[in-house]
Amino acid sequence: MQRLCWIRTVKAKPQPIINADGTLTRRTRLLDWNSCLSYARMIAGNTARFRSVQSYRYDDNRGYVCYQVCNAALDIEAVEQLQLQRVRSAEREGPSMVFLGPELGLRAGLYMCCNFYCEPAEQHIYEVDSIHLECTCPDFHLRCRRLGICCKHLCAVSSWLLRAAS
Question: The whole model's pTM is what?
Answer without folding.
Answer: 0.64
